[in-house]
Amino acid sequence: MGSMLGDWPSFDPHNFSQLRPSDPSNPSFDPSFNEEMATKLTPATYRPTHSRTLPPPDQVITTEAKNILMRNFYQRAEDKLRPKRAASEHLIPEHGCKQLRASTSN
Amino acid sequence: MFRSINVTSRIFERQIRTPAPGTSVHCARRFYENIVPSFTVYDIECPDHSFRKFTDDGQYLISFSRNHQDLIVYRPMWLSFSCKEEDCCRHDLPPKAKRFESFFTQLYSVTLASCNELICKDFFLSMEGNQFGLFATSTAQIHDAPTTGRAIQGVPFIEKITFHLLRLEDGVVLDEKVFHNDFINLAHNMGVFLYDDLLAIVSLRYQTIHILQVRDLGNLVDVRTIGSFCREDDELFLISNSQSLATSERSRLNPFPGNQVGNGHNQVNQDDSFLSGIKQRLLSFIFQGMWNEETDQAMRVQSLKKKFFFHFQDYVDLIIWKVQFLDRHHLLIKFGSVDGGVSRNVDHHPAFFAVYNMETTEVVAFYQNSAEELYFLFEKFCDHFHATSRNSLHMNFISSHSNNVYALEQLRSIKNKGGSFSQFVKKMMASLPFGCQSQSPSPYFDQSLFRYDEKLISATDRHRQSTDHPIKFISRRPPYTLKFKIKPGPEAGTIDGRTKRISSFLFHPFLPLALSIQQTLFLQPSVVNIHFRR
């Protein structure tokens, strides 16, 4: 089967390259158009056909309470206040036992 | 959307075409290009009041009596008359058109200020949803104020400031909030900010931000007080601990009677021992930011010494100048030195901005007024600095450089004019925090409809230098013609060119009606012109 958009001409040859039929494991390909491929591919989006249960939380669109300006302020604050680790500290494994941080020693 | 400038063909086009998504208000506004206040009645006979503002819903005109004790509210109406003759357009208007009463009906007059108080005529805030108005009266300002308790020096002192919450429909005073022996900057709503139903009042003298809520029935309720304490239970915690500290201090100091090096400072004066809550939050934010900049311990200490401890006293001496809401939980606070707090010209004084979250009581951001980072946020998201409440949709259409291409061009031209970038940034940052309700929502100030000289007239209600020449409003779209002119002052111009004259303009929010008021500085009666569409 040919992919819907894979062979069409476009400015950039890399456009739609992922939809080439040579790449059958592409999860973004919509399975509803081809029943045979449905078993190999997992649909990326959840389409509810009933309203008996709530949709998964990451599939619901909600309005962010903070406006974009506040989000920018918080983003910059996080970047500023996140303690930067020196190169040597990256070698210390961070799981399991607690390590004494260089910042608290004096 | 409209292909022609003719109003009739635009009306026909409107019947068959829909505007592009999200532009219905902008398309409707284009009709203001056709309906303009082109006719002027000069020097109209009107009562000698100082006219303040039209409310944003266009229902009321607020004015104060000359003696600054009474509030008089008018309802703007539209002139109507009929003419039986054939060539009506050429006729002069009937004499009753030249009367103030044909345009405005007095609704009521209320005395707000008692004997030794005066209404602050530059102060007025309105709540659109429930048609409330907030006014302020105060006693005289005293400059050499005695310092008591936590009051800072250098700030003048007013014995009594009262905020009156009024129902505009009938002039009934619903609630009052009084501040004693305090100083709040009332001119042009500087010390107060209204967002939705939340009111922030900055007490400069006690360095406190009072947050109040205006309830639907008209009560002013205290929500929180930010300054010495940030959370509601901070004071309780300190008092309960200070008692136990006092006893342990006494027992600790006694064994070392001659030791003066000791603990740094003794807790003799409880007031001076702690910095105020908000100051502590600010200092710890600055400290943490600098601490995290360096990773090497030695560099860290060096950097702190240079940048933090060297300026520590300067940071401690900062005072809150002005405050605005960014949303219901966040405040933008401007800090500066004591000298700049009261003066109008703040260019020479360093200023700092902090974003403070009232719920978590944390400082989220801190910038100096020359910070480029803050300027870039201001340039991209200016509209979000003008915190507009949910209820007033029209406030979202006031031209700013974030929502209007022409305003952005103007900003860019000022930026590229020359001079240093940091001077430009400081100049832009001087307008932050924005004053509350200081811009008129009139579509005649929409930069995409009209081009006008911003130095002579703009949406911001401020007194400006008056010129004899009329102020031209030229359309932005082809054929770029002059649409209307606003000329303040008498028709023939003033003979005496030497006296300084200032004008102010009051535009109705949606009708083609405007008042221009020209005043000289010698208490002569002002000249009021009415501009409307004939």
From TrEMBL, chain A:
Biased composition (Basic and acidic residues): 84-97
Annotated segments matching region Disordered: 1-37, 84-106
GO biological process: one example: positive regulation of proteasomal ubiquitin-dependent protein catabolic process
All copies of domain DET1- and DDB1-associated protein, residue ranges: 3-78
GO cellular component: Cul4-RING E3 ubiquitin ligase complex
Comp. bias (Low complexity): 21-34
Protein family (similarity comment): Belongs to the DDA1 family.
Protein name, per record: DET1- and DDB1-associated protein 1 domain-containing protein
Lineage: Eukaryota, Viridiplantae, Streptophyta, Embryophyta, Tracheophyta
UniProtKB/TrEMBL annotation, chain B:
Pfam families on file: Det1
InterPro entries from the UniProt entry: 6-hairpin_glycosidase_sf, De-etiolated_protein_1_Det1
Chain segments annotated as coiled-coil in the UniProt record: none
Lineage top rank: taxon: Eukaryota
GO cellular component, one term: nucleus
GO biological process: carbohydrate metabolic process; positive regulation of proteasomal ubiquitin-dependent protein catabolic process; protein ubiquitination
Database matches in SUPFAM superfamilies: Six-hairpin glycosidases
GO molecular function terms noted in the UniProt entry: ubiquitin protein ligase binding; ubiquitin-like ligase-substrate adaptor activity
PANTHER family listed in its UniProt record: DET1 HOMOLOG (PTHR13374:SF3), DET1 HOMOLOG DE-ETIOLATED-1 HOMOLOG (PTHR13374)
Name of the featured protein: Light-mediated development protein DET1
